[in-house]
Write a structure and sequence with these properties.
Keywords: Hydrolase, Metal-binding, Zinc. With 473 residues, the chain is an alpha/beta fold. The chain has 2 domains: 111 residues, Urease, subunit C, domain 1 (Roll); 303 residues, Metal-dependent hydrolases (TIM Barrel). Strands 1, 2, 3, 4, 5, 14, 15, 16 and 17 form a 9-stranded mixed beta sheet that branches. Strands 6-7-8-9 form a 4-stranded parallel beta sheet.
Amino acid sequence: MLVKVEAVADIYVRGGWIITMDPQRRVIKDGAVAVEGGVITAVGKRDNLDPQYKSYSDVVIDARDGVVIPGLVNTHVHLAQGLLKACADYKRLIPWLKDRVWPLQGNYKPEEALVSAKLVVAEMLKSGVTTFLETGLVGRYGVDAIIEFLHDSGIRAAVARHVMDLKGYALEENILHEGLVEPGDTSFNDTIRLYHKYHGWDSRIWIWFGPRTPGAVSVELYKKMSEKARELKTGITMHLAEVREDVDYTVEVFGKKPVEFAHWVGLTGPNVVLVHVVWVTDDEIDLLAKTKTSVSHNPSSNLKLASGGARVSEMLRRGVNVTLGTDGGPSNNDYDLIREMKVAALLQPLLTGDPEAIRAEQVLEMATINGARALMIDHLVGSIEVGKRADLVVVDFHKPHLKPLNNPVSHLVYSAMGSDVKHVIVDGRLVVFDRQILTFDEEEVLRKADEAAFNLYQRAGVCREPDLKWSIF
C-alpha cells in the first residue's frame, strides 16, 4: 500500500555506527543523528543525544543494528535504459549502441520513458542513492514529465539534457539512430528552456548540459555549451575516452588526446563530470587534476563491455576528484551503487597487481562526498554534519553476511548490497521506510514496466526474445 508522507519536521536516528564522512572522517560507535526542518542539528553519541531528542522528535528510527551513512551519490545514470536490462549482453560498445541500445531508445514513447525513469529511481532509492546525475535525456522521452516525477519522488537529481548536431560516434559517421537525432539549435535551446523552468527547484533539481560523445557534436557547439554553462553557473557531463576508438578519433581528427580535446573545447573544470575516462595518459590525468575536473568511474560497465579499466588509484594519487556511477541497465544490468563499490574496490588491485591500490575508505568517499563535490553541492550534502541537509541512509547490518561487525566501512564496500538498505531520508523527508517507498507506488511501476518493455521491444524489433543459449519451455 502506498503511504503518503509529507516533509517531517523532526527525525531522530538512533544508530549503531554513524559513518559521517565529515572532514575528520569520524566514525561514531553507538551514535545518533538529529534532524529538524530538513537540516542535521546534532551528530554524536547516542547516550548524549537521547535526553534531548528521543522523546521529543516526530519520528524516532531505531538503527542500533545498522550503520548510518550519508545518502549515496550516483554520478552516471541513464534513466531511459531502465527497461533495457539484458537487451544488449555480450557486445562491445559501438555495436552495443548501434545494434541494440540506440534502436531501443530511438523507439521510446514518452509514457514508456517515464516508466523507465520511475523503475530506475525506485531501484536507486531502495539501494541508498539520494542524489544522481542523469547523463542525457532527449526530447522524445518527455523530459518535463520525467523531471516533475523526479521532484515528486523526493530524490535529488542533476538532469543533463543531451545536446548534439552530428550523427556519428568517433570515426563512424551517421550511425546514430534516427529516432534520437535532434538539430543542434533544438537540443541546445531546449536545455536553456529546462534550465529556466526547473534549475534549483527546492534545491533538489538542477539542469545540466549533456553533450554527446565526440563524433556527435561539432567543436563550435561544444564551445558554445561550455561558455553557456559557465555563464549559467551549471554543469556539463560527457562520456570521454571510454574505448580506444575515442582516442583514435580525437588524435586522428584533431591531433589531441581525449582530455586535451575536452580542455580545448572548454569541457574541463569544477563544473564538469567526465564519464569513464579509461584510455588516458599520465599527462591527461594531471590535466584533470589541475583543472579540478571530476571523473565518474563506472567499473561494471567497463568490465561488461570489455572497454578497459580506468586508472582510478593513479587518478586519486594525483589529486583527481573521482566519483562512482552505475551507468545504465544494458551495460550494468542494475543501478545498485553499493554493489558498484565492491567492483570498484576489486578492480584496482587487479589492474595494478597491488592489493593496497585502493582502500574501502576511498571507495566510500567516491560514492558520497566526492560525488557531492562533483555536482557542486558538497556544501549541502555528501556527509553527516551539523548544518547540512539531512540525506541519510540506514543500512541493516543484522544479517549473516554482515556479521561479525568489526569494520563497518569494509563491510559496506566488500559485503553489503543495496537490498540491505532499510530506511532512506532525503532533505529531512522519509522516502523509504522499512524498504517501502513512501513517495510513489512501486507496485504500479513494476506492473507497468513489464508492459512498457514488451511494447518497446516489439516496436523496435530488438530484445523480443531472450538471448539465451538454453531452451525455454
